[in-house]
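ok new one. same drill as before - structure tokens go in, u give me an amino acid for every spot. 373 of them this time. try not to just spam alanines like last time pls lmao
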């Protein structure tokens, strides 16, 4: 059995982002391939050891403070060193600058790979200070994994290490989503029907929700928004000021409710307009459920999932009128929208299943171990 340690700043149940979803799918999917996964992250509560989540184990160290979206911990050094000594491979999930420091201080000589989830965009000035450590970190890794060929081609950092970069797209497992109860589905269907646009995600600066709100003004279609975040009040104030009456903020919902709305919606709208959105797990969910998608061309994985005029519509970033026109098109031409959704489901099965992602990572794990022998 191969033992793998995943290391990232947050994990379930404290955070529910795309990186956490990838770690979960790899950890659960690896079991039947004789891979045992351990996940180490930070939390507010303090140290938790050997806490099981389904088929894999979670470990937490106490976060003492956070600066520029980077949490820090003192106790994690000891926990990381102990766990790293027990495993065969260390799987880092970038970006998290503090992780690089833990890596070098611990001086663990094990095969390592880095899944490169996104460039650092917002902290441009701090990035200059961090760059020397980051370059040492990338140079020390045996392999770097990018989530799409699009991101590899457009990331200046990844291009510098192209010879050690492999592309493994993210994947999802439909069977890991909850069973839908007919009564709950009927309640949501009564509220919104089966014709509405759906957004799912944390309310972050790069998600483009302020652009979506502008595009929604005076349109006939409902737009349902699942999620929460620090800019929520600002977004709701924008809705009020513009007099938009067709946007519905539902907050954070249960997995079953989210799944129901994914099955009911007519299309997924994903207006992220900056490279901080490296892939777009919501788009992947939309494709999995056979829904047409609307996304922006930002040179990342969003347009590896969503192919313009094949699986959905792609618009320029931060273009209110183009986003509005795309929603109008899918709303008015249901037959075209359904065709795009069917194509999206086919592309998902070809490229983005969790099984495919897991098998590709397992092959990489084996190759790294063989190289270390």
């Amino acid at each position: 059995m191969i033992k793998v340690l995943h290391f990232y700043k947050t994990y379930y149940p404290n955070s529910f982002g795309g990186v956490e979803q990838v770690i979960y799918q790899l950890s659960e999917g690896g079991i039947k391939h004789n891979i045992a996964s351990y996940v180490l992250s930070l939390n507010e509560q303090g140290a938790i050891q050997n806490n099981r989540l389904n088929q894999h184990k979670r470990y937490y160290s106490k976060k003492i403070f956070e600066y520029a979206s980077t949490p820090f911990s003192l106790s994690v050094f000891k926990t990381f060193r102990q766990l790293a000594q027990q495993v065969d491979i260390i799987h880092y999930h970038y970006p998290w600058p503090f992780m690089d420091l833990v890596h070098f201080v611990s001086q663990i000589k094990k095969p390592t790979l880095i899944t490169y989830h996104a460039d650092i965009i917002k902290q441009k000035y701090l990035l200059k200070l961090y760059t020397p450590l980051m370059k040492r970190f990338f140079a020390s890794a045996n392999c770097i994994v990018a989530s799409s060929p699009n991101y590899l081609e457009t990331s200046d950092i990844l291009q510098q290490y192209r010879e050690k970069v492999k592309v493994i797209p993210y994947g999802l497992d439909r069977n890991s989503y909850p069973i839908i109860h007919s009564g709950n589905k009927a309640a949501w269907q009564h509220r919104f029907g089966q014709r509405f646009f759906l957004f799912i995600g944390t309310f972050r600066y790069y998600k483009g929700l302020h652009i979506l709100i502008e595009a929604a003004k005076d349109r006939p279609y409902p737009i349902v928004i699942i999620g929460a975040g620090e800019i929520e009040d600002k977004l709701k104030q924008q809705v009020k000021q513009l007099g938009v009456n067709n946007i519905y903020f539902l907050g954070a919902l249960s997995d079953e409710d989210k799944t129901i709305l994914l099955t009911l919606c007519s299309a997924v709208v994903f207006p992220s307009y900056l490279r901080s959105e490296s892939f777009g797990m919501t788009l992947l969910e939309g494709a999995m459920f056979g829904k047409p998608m609307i996304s922006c061309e930002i040179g990342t994985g969003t347009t590896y999932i969503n192919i313009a005029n094949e699986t959905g519509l792609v618009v320029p970033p931060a273009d209110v009128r183009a986003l509005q026109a795309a929603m109008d098109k899918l709303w008015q031409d249901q037959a075209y929208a359904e065709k795009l959704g069917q194509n999206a489901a086919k592309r998902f099965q070809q490229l983005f299943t969790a099984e495919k992602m897991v098998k590709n990572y397992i092959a990489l794990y084996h190759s790294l171990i063989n190289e270390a022998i």
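The domain at 2-173+353-372 is CATH 3.40.50.2000 (Rossmann fold). and btw The CA atoms of residues 92 and 114 lie 5 Å apart.
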